[in-house]
Amino acid sequence: MAASLLPALSLSLQFGRFKGVERHRAALPRHSVTRWIRHALDIDGEITVRIVDAEEGQRLNREFRGKDYATNVLTFDYARGPVVMADLVLCAPVVAREAKENRKTLAAHYAHLLVHGTLHAQGWDHETSEADADEMEAYEIEILAGLGIRSPYGR
């Protein structure tokens, strides 16, 4: 898809203060984050991406989802139209651990999680049924392939 045909994106990219933040900043240049998210958007978006430490990630997951652990990405969607408005919160230590376990680059794993979170912001949900999960995974694979990133699901 040509860049001019992609939806517009107003992006706020924020990094918390934590040990090793420089490595995460290097894996997330603004132009890459913008590209990854725009490829996952169906309409224009206003999205904040915040990279946090394990403590903040766990606190947010506990407060908003009732799950007392740090997860890789949390999506807070506020509007799905006429503009997608959302916050995507990614937990740096979890993302780094998963990337290492799955033998992926940190940037490739961030790309996957940003696409995943952006789809959630537009109403996609993999927890509603196996069919919905399969459909969402297939769409993620398609988007990532268009970005030159191999399937995160080993297919």
UniProtKB/TrEMBL annotation:
**Pfam families per the UniProt record, alphabetical:** YbeY (PF02130)
UniProt-annotated binding residues for Zn(2+) = 116, 120, 126
EC number(s) from the headed UniProt entry: 3.1.-.-
Q: Does the keyword Metal-binding apply?
A: yes
- Record's GO cellular component terms: cytoplasm
Could you provide one GO biological process annotation from this protein's UniProt record? Answer: rRNA processing
Name the top EC class: hydrolase
Q: Which UniProt keywords apply?
A: Cytoplasm, Endonuclease, Hydrolase, Metal-binding, Nuclease, Ribosome biogenesis, rRNA processing, Zinc
- Belongs to which family? Belongs to the endoribonuclease YbeY family.
Under what name is this protein listed?
Answer: Endoribonuclease YbeY
Organism, by scientific name, is: Variovorax boronicumulans
Gene name of the encoded protein: ybeY
